[in-house]
Every structure is written in C-alpha cells, then in structure tokens.
Amino acid sequence: MSRRHVSVLVRMIIAALLLGWLVRSGSLDFGALALFFEHPALLVANLAVFVGTYLIAAVRWRLLLRIAGVELSFRRAVHLTFTGAFLNVVAPGGVGGDIVKAIYVARDQAPARRPSVYLIALLDRLLAMAGLVAVAVVLNIGVRAVSGDSRLGEPTTAIALLAVVTLVLPVVGLVLVRRFAKRDEGPTEGASRFAKLRGRLVAAARLVSERPALLVLSLGLSIAIHVCSIIWFSAVASAVLDQHVSVARMAVVYPLGMLSVLLPISYAGFGVGHIAFKQLFAMVGLSGGANVLNVYLIGQIVPCLFCVIPYLLLKREGVAPSEAELQSETNR
Predict the structure, then answer these.
(1) What is the 3-state composition of the chain as percent helix, strand, coil, each rounded to the nearest 5?
(2) Rounded Cα gap, residues 100 and 327, in angstroms
(3) pLDDT tens digits for 151-194?
(4) Closest of 149, 61, 68 to residue 110, by C-alpha
(5) Which among 168, 315, 174, 152 has a CA at the least distance from the CA of 246?
(6) What whole-number distance in Å separates Cα of residue 83 and Cα of residue 77?
(7) How far is CA 302 from CA 52, 86, 212, 214, in A?
(8) Domain that holds residue 185
(9) What mean pLDDT, rounded, does the chain reach?
(10) Which of 9, 6, 27 lies closest to 18 in space, CA to CA?
(11) For residues 243 and 235, what is the distance between their CA atoms, to the nearest angstrom?
C-alpha cells in the first residue's frame, strides 16, 4: 500500500470516528437527508445549483488558461471539469481532479508551456478561495451595519484576517512582482523546496500580471459561484431547521465552515467540517449546524459520483494518466 493510500485510509478513519461521536452525542441525524425525498423541489434545486456552479467553474478555468496562452473549447472545459468533480470525491488528497484535468490539457501543449498549465490549476484554487472570502467580507460588512449583532463579532474578525491573507497580500505581491520581477532574473529552480516554491510563485505572478483583466473576470466568476452556494446553503438550513435562516447569517458562518472542510484532516472534510459548523451555528444563535452541513455536502457529493460518465468517456480515449505520471505531477 502506497503512502498516498495510507493517507486516504487514515482520513477515512478519522472521519468515521468524528461522525460516530457526533451521532452518539445527538448532534448529527442522518434522517435529515430524507428532506430530498420529502420535498422533490429541493432535489431539483440542488441539482440545478450543482450543475450551474460547475459550469461557471469551467468557464473560469477556461479563462485562466488563456493567461497561459492555452485555448480550450468550452465543451472540453466542461468535460474535464465534471471529470475533476468525480475524481475529487473518489480520490481526495494529493491526486485529485485538478491535477488530472491539468494533465489532459498539458499533454496537448508544447513542453515549455506545460508548467504554466499546472500553475493555472493552483491559481484556479486560490481564486476559488479568494472569491469565497470576498463574498464573506462584503456581506459581513452589510450584516454588521444593519444588525449590529455582537454575536457576529468572532466570525467577522476571523473573516477579516482571511481577507488580508487571501486578497490583500496577493494583490500587494502581484504589484511588487509586476514592478520588480524583471530585476530578479536568477534561477527560480533550486535544490530546496523553498526555492522551487518561490520559483513557482514568481512564475505564476508574472503570468497573472500580464493579463489582469482575465484575473479580475475570473475572480468575479468565483464570487458568483459562492453567492449561489451561500444562498442555497441558507435554503438548506431553513429546510433542515424548519425555520427561516437568513442569507446574512449564513454569510457569516459559511466561509469559515467551508474552509474547515478543505483542511486535509479527514476524508472530504467529513467530521471536521461537521464539528466546525456545529460551533459556528452556535455563534450566531442557531443549532443543528452539523445536520445542515451533512445535507448540503451529501447533496453536492452524490451528483459528483454521476460524473463518472465523463470520466469513463475520457478513459475510452486510451490516454488516462498513469500512476507514475499522477505521482510525478503531485510532487511538483
């Protein structure tokens, strides 16, 4: 068993233990999932949100690839994006859908352009997070201005810190690289991981600085995705808790909670994310955060499994990445 497989197994065990603890403590009830069967309209809306957000994500990735000088058809971008959604569920961790779809695109490019394709995959993830934080900042300013609710203080402070890390510092770094990068013509590749990371960051910043309009447009698409997700999360919370849950409240807890889901501690964020949402809901005077997240996550993960169809269509092309190729790109 490889180290990667051991890592996934450990995360699955952690997720199972945390979920078991939540069920025993009465904080998690899987019976809430019956909502999708009791209210078919919720199921239809869930599928619409899933498809819509991934289509927007495909457009964003296609735009970002243009920064690297790569033109990808919309159909191919959608095909690879849904394939990536499937792989992110069945193979979370080091080798996920972002890497696989980047490999498919990079293979069709000249060798000198391939590193840029992988840098775009990283940039795509960073913009997804930046869009989430940007939405949280704007909505939180409005929430505090209108409500003045002191219970929103702790999450809002945390979101402000995230905004500095994901929005302010990257913009400052991009400006500095745009102004001074030409003075730094030394080798960006080195024996140490720090030297390699520095080289990649500088290379990515140079690429982005050449097409700022595409970057801004891509960030706008990320914001659109998260606005849709927060509105839908609020609707799910209202259905699960059987009470009106405002979008404003969910704008406070959703960003921090989803960041906890992304932490590489448990399988697909299960357990860790449930505990985080349980606490975050309590901060804004609500209960049942674990149940709400459970319904939301399952509602987004199950459709990902049906994305096995575009994945199998790629397999039929006979050019699926080998295990060695996947490992090589993961260690980049």
Answers:
(1) 80, 0, 20
(2) 11
(3) 444 556 666 777 777 777 777 766 666 666 554 444 444 456 66
(4) 68
(5) 152
(6) 10
(7) 15, 9, 36, 32
(8) 3-330
(9) 80
(10) 27
(11) 10
Q: Which two tokens stand for residue 26?
A: 């009465």
Considering the chain, what percentage of its residues have pLDDT values greater than 70? 76
In 73-168, alpha helices (H)? 74-90, 97-106, 114-147, 153-163
Written as six digits, the tokens of 57 are 């994500």
Query: In the chain, how many domains are there?
Result: 1
Residue 14 has pLDDT above 70, yes or no: yes
User: To the nearest 10°, the Cα dihedral for 44, 63, 301, 249?
Assistant: -70
Tokens of 319: 């050019």
Are 48 and 273 a contacting pair, CB within 8 Å?
A: no
CB 63 within 8 A of CB 49: no
| Average pLDDT rounded to a whole number, residues 294-320 | 85
pTM: 0.82
Q: Which residue has the tokens 């990667």?
A: 4
Q: CA-to-CA distance for 6 and 56, rounded, in angstroms? A: 34
Q: What burial class does residue 286 get, using C-beta atoms within 10 Å of its C-beta: 0-12 exposed, 13-18 middle, 19+ buried?
A: buried
